[in-house]
Every structure is written in C-alpha cells, then in structure tokens.
C-alpha cells in the first residue's frame, strides 16, 4: 500500500524531485520492476468486467499473462532492459497489515455474494476488485513467461520493492518501476511510476528523485524513514490525528520520530499499541534482501518464440498471430544498436537553478512562515501549490 | 539593462526555427560577450550550442549577465512577425520578467514592438571537452540536408564513415539499402559548391537519422555545414552564422553493445 499521502506531500513541498518524462526516454536503461505489484494491477485492470476475468476456455485466469506479455514487450521494444523482482516471504512486521487485508477480503467476498444475489452491478464491480488475490500460480506463470521472453527474474527473500531499491542503490539498475512509494523509503535513488501503464492511457512517466526530495525536504534518509512511518506504512500503524503535513512539521522540529513521540501529549495523540516504529525503521534501513553482489549477472536473451507459442497459444488460448508478432518485435528491437546519451560521453549534467526562481521560492517560503506565525492556517505547501496530480486508481498492492 | 540592435534581424528567426523542434524551452544567456544558448532535448541525445558575438550587433549593451528563459515556440511566433529586412532590437530590464522585441522596417515607415513573457527554467549544462577530431567534413548545407532527407525515406539509422576515398552515408530499412558518397571537391567554380574533407584517421559512427534531419533545419543560416567526428564520441554538426557566431549541434552515436555493465550507475 506504500506510504500514505507521500506523493502529495512531495508534490507540495519538494516538487523539484518529481519529473514528468516520456516513456521513450528510457531507452537503453536497466530497470528493476516490482513484479508482484504489477501482477496485482493486471488482475484488476486487464480484461476484467465485474467478477469476470480474462480466462482460457477451461476457466483459468490469464489477465496477468496478457498484461505481463504485452506491457513487457512494449518495454523491450523501446530498448529498455527490465529485470523483474518477485516478492518472497512477507516480513513478520507486515503480519498485522496482512491480517487486516485478509479480513477486508473476506468481507468483500461476502459483499460480492450478496451483490450477486441482488444483481447490483455497481456493487459487484466494487467488491470483485477487492476480492482479487495474487496466488503462487499467478506468480509462477509470470516467471515462466518472462524467462521465455528472455528477461531476467529475481526472487526477493522478502519484499520485492526493498530488493529493487537495493539493486538501484548499488547501481545495477537505473531505477525502480513501481507505483509503491515505499521504494523511496527503502532508499531507491529513482522511482519510476506509470512505466507499465498501457500506451492507450497516454500517461506521462513520473520519475521521483530521492536525493532531490531529501534536499528539498531538508531531511536525512533516516529522518525521511521516520516521516514515512508517521505518514503510515505497511509495518506500523499511525498516530491518530497526525497526517503527512503534521508529520513533516514535527520531524523537522524534533529531528526524529522518537523525540516526536516524547514531545507529544499521549492523552491527545496516543500512539497505536503496539507501535513497532523502531522495528519498522530498522527494516526500512536494512531490509531482508539478497546483496547485489550475490545476485546472478543480469542477462537479456533473445525470446524463445516456440516456447512462447507453446505456452501462451497451446496452454492459454492466446492468439498465435499476435504472440508471434510480438516476439518478432522483441527480436527486432534487440538487434538494434543502442542510442547513446550525451552524459556518457561528456560527463554528468549540472543543473543550474534559475536565480530568479530560487529567489521567488525563498520569498514564498518566508511569506508562508510569516503567515503561520500570525496564526493563520496557511500550510507551508499552500503558497507554492502542488503540481502533481493524484495517482490514478488501482495502485494498491494485494 | 540589455539592449541589442541587429541589422540582419532575420538571422534570429532562422536560428530559432532551427532549434525549436528539438528543445521546447530554453534559457538564453546574455553577457557582455554576446548571446549564448545551450540546451538538450528531453532524452539527452542531442545538444544545441549557439553563440552570437556582441561585436556582430550594431549596438550592444549588457550591464549585468542575465538568463532569459523562454518558450522557443513562442519566441518563434514573435520573430515571425518581423519582416525579412527588418532591423530587430531587443530590450530587457535587469529584474524584469519580459523581453521586448522591436522591429523597424528598412524605410523606417513601420515600427512594431512585441513583449514576450519570460519563464523561470532550470537549465541543464554539459561541459563539452575540446576534441581533436579524426575527420572534419565541410560540405554545402543543401547537400547535407538532401542526404538526410533521401536516406530518411529508406531507413532510420545512418552509418557515416569517413575514409580517404570520401565520406559515405549508409542506411538500410525494410525496403532496401541506400548509400551516398561525398568526395573532396575544391575545384568547383563557386565556393558554395566546394567540399573539403580533412581526415586524420578513418572513422565510422552510427546515428539516428531523425536528429540529423532535424539539424538540417539550420540550412538557411549558412552555405556550408561542418561535420566533425571522432571515434566513439558525439558528432558535432556546425553551421557558421555569417561572421556573427555559430550554431552547433551535438549528437550521441548509437552503440553496438552486448551488455554495458555498470553503465546505469547512479551519478
């Protein structure tokens, strides 16, 4: 589920860290893709109508394969080199969160039954979205598909986004493609959103830069982790009555979550019980991952066309023409030379901030501060205004 | 305070028309030495570097270096309103957020002025190292534009190889292949038709044709274009702007690679 309200918080307070760019600009880049999250999205989005999913003649679900196959083809065609990372065992800390989700799903199951009986189409739509669950079979089929496509697959010991982040930190990949903001909390230098969105959505790709975010927020990575825990993460509850904006304010003021809790009046803002924030922080700092140097070398091979046809057409009723054409496009893209970037010849780009703009922003900040001192309800972000639209639906996980 | 008066006002329009499709917004930096612009396209594959020397202007005054951010499409709209023989004068205040263009007809019977809003843009700068190029080809600008256009109808990448026999442009696509060879020609009657190849070492590089074609939009600026190439480095495509300065394009080559380990290293 990521971090509550982090996108908006960054948009309001550190919009420089968010860059909108074109999908095509990622040519030649190696990118770690949070596979488990995307499979879930595919199950929700691809070819679903009410509680009916895309299936074979025998009723086996194929939405995940459909999504994975065509979207991955799109990445490969654009010259990207994706590596897919799958979730392992969920960490103990996530137990509470998972139990909650299970509870919600059971509720949704019941709701769906009731809705079907009463024939309420809207309710069927709503509940069926919530009953969707990624099973081991889904994951295994996707892994098989990806291997046939010649794309490397990595099994994370625990959380996939943590594994992705550690690979990006080590420079094995350029960035992480996920919709889950907690990848930044795990320390991924670049988080890429909407990379796997369908081309028909015509959605610009969003890239979040952690370094810029920290600089603009004025926080260290460990303070940023504390901020994310206060906003609400998967591993600890949150303090009732304190949202992202207050969380940022308190972390800036007190320096760490521990000090914030000491300073807060427990009768007004009781921390949840239990509140394993220290454990959560430790997990964000040093998650259970395979160290990058122990990972197998990432290799992108030519697709196994016959294997793909046997699997997708033979077992899963895909259209043979379309599968063969897609495989052809992957092979064609692979044989092309990679376009170089000027930075790799001339050295890194230096971004010169416009002097006017810097001055204006400083003025806006001062104005906001002054307004606050007067006791007005002006929020720090209000003066500048957020530039980032809210993320679309269907970004959840499990 | 900035004031710059340019007799050949149409030159500005030609420069802007040449670059506006590659870069949408850019900062134009002004200092006592003149106007300069450096900008990259969003994919960081190509770079534009333009310089107009202060002494090329009839009148030039710049008290303090300044950076004027603007939308090049809007700048092109404004410059389009100038007559081809008009004298153009630029004016801006040090802390203003607009720049004024004044167009005067040669007979002084018509004066128009346009105020363009400036934008605050963070500019990305690259340090371009001085390079000793292996091969420098100076050829008629129209010939270069024609080669790019012809080859684009066949393929999307071009191999440019310079040898002692000449410079060969090769492409291939679904319909077939195409080759164009340009040879040294210093005996042509008209200077505009001459081609000069200065070769230290043979070199061959692969490029995306659409960028090279886009650079050819600068053809109206100069009679000649110079391509400078060195092994495994971006090509420089330069148009001289009539005794005033230059417009240079840099384009990163395509690389035949199996696996660029560590290439994606975070900066």
TrEMBL record, chain A:
Region (Disordered): 367-398
Role description: Structure-specific nuclease with 5'-flap endonuclease and 5'-3' exonuclease activities involved in DNA replication and repair. During DNA replication, cleaves the 5'-overhanging flap structure that is generated by displacement synthesis when DNA polymerase encounters the 5'-end of a downstream Okazaki fragment. It enters the flap from the 5'-end and then tracks to cleave the flap base, leaving a nick for ligation. Also involved in the long patch base excision repair (LP-BER) pathway, by cleaving within the apurinic/apyrimidinic (AP) site-terminated flap.
InterPro entries, per the entry: 5-3_exonuclease_C_sf, Flap_endonuc, HhH2, PIN-like_dom_sf, XPG-I_dom, XPG/Rad2, XPG_CS, XPG_DNA_repair_N
Keywords: DNA damage, DNA repair, DNA replication, Endonuclease, Exonuclease, Hydrolase, Magnesium, Metal-binding, Mitochondrion, Nuclease, Nucleus, Phosphoprotein
Localization (cell): Nucleus, Nucleolus; Nucleus, Nucleoplasm; Mitochondrion
Stretches assigned to the XPG N-terminal domain: 1-108
Record has Coiled coil as a keyword: no
Entry EC number(s): 3.1.-.-
Coiled coil, from the record: none
SUPFAM superfamilies hit by this protein: 5' to 3' exonuclease, C-terminal subdomain, PIN domain-like
PROSITE patterns, A to Z: XPG_2 (PS00842)
Subunit structure: Interacts with PCNA1 and PCNA2. Three molecules of FEN1 bind to one PCNA trimer with each molecule binding to one PCNA monomer. PCNA stimulates the nuclease activity without altering cleavage specificity.
Names of required cofactors: Mg(2+)
Protein name (database record): Flap endonuclease 1
Residue span(s) of domain XPG-I: 147-219
Gene Ontology CC annotation, any one: mitochondrion
Record's cofactor remark: Binds 2 magnesium ions per subunit. They probably participate in the reaction catalyzed by the enzyme. May bind an additional third magnesium ion after substrate binding.
The species this protein was found in: Raphidocelis subcapitata
One Pfam match: XPG_N
Family statement drawn from the similarity comment of this UniProt entry: Belongs to the XPG/RAD2 endonuclease family. FEN1 subfamily.
Xref: SMART domains: HhH2, XPGI, XPGN
Coarse class of the protein's main subcellular location: nucleus
Gene Ontology molecular function: 5'-3' exonuclease activity; 5'-flap endonuclease activity; DNA binding; magnesium ion binding
Composition bias, Low complexity: 377-398
From TrEMBL, chain B:
UniProt subcellular location: Nucleus
GO MF annotation, one: DNA polymerase processivity factor activity
UniProt keyword RNA-binding present: no
Major site of localization recorded for this protein: nucleus
SUPFAM superfamilies the UniProt entry points to: DNA clamp
Highest taxon, organism lineage: Eukaryota
GO cellular component: PCNA complex
GO process terms (BP): leading strand elongation; mismatch repair; regulation of DNA replication; translesion synthesis
Segments forming domain Proliferating cell nuclear antigen PCNA N-terminal: 1-124
Keywords linked to the UniProt accession: DNA replication, DNA-binding, Nucleus
Domain Proliferating cell nuclear antigen PCNA C-terminal intervals: 127-254
Alphabetized Pfam families for the sequence: PCNA_C, PCNA_N
InterPro entries noted in UniProt: DNA_clamp_sf, Pr_cel_nuc_antig, Pr_cel_nuc_antig_C, Pr_cel_nuc_antig_CS, Pr_cel_nuc_antig_N
Role description: This protein is an auxiliary protein of DNA polymerase delta and is involved in the control of eukaryotic DNA replication by increasing the polymerase's processivity during elongation of the leading strand. This protein is an auxiliary protein of DNA polymerase delta and is involved in the control of eukaryotic DNA replication by increasing the polymerase's processibility during elongation of the leading strand.
PANTHER family: PROLIFERATING CELL NUCLEAR ANTIGEN
Family note: Belongs to the PCNA family.
The protein, known as: DNA sliding clamp PCNA
Organism this protein belongs to: Raphidocelis subcapitata
